[in-house]
Amino acid sequence: MNRFVGLFTQLQSDDIRLSQTIFLDNGDIAFSIEKLFGNYPTDSAQLLGTVAQNDTVFVRDMITGLSNKVFKDQFITSPKSLEYIDLRFAGKVFYKFTTSEKLIEKAVESKID
Questions:
Q1: Spatial separation of the C-alpha atoms in residues 32 and 73, rounded to whole Å
Q2: Which of 82, 102, 106, 113 is the one with CA 20 to 30 A from 94?
């Protein structure tokens, strides 16, 4: 549990504020997104990961995803339509708005020892 409290704290930044951590039955973890880029998404918007994830890769992928111009522009245009940002697959960032689902980009690969 301490690991996820630390991760929750590490994910907080000027760009993103999370409100809670949810452990799902299938081994996934969801962080509720309270605020993103100064805008408030719906109460159900989530940042998805897995309990077995490498937290360093998770954070790296989140930073890559949030810095993507296409994602950021779409979110700022329609913040209430964000459903999730999916980081369950290392090196890939998916997101879903109520109208479309797109692969943001493949994250830069890095070795973690």
A1: 21
A2: 113
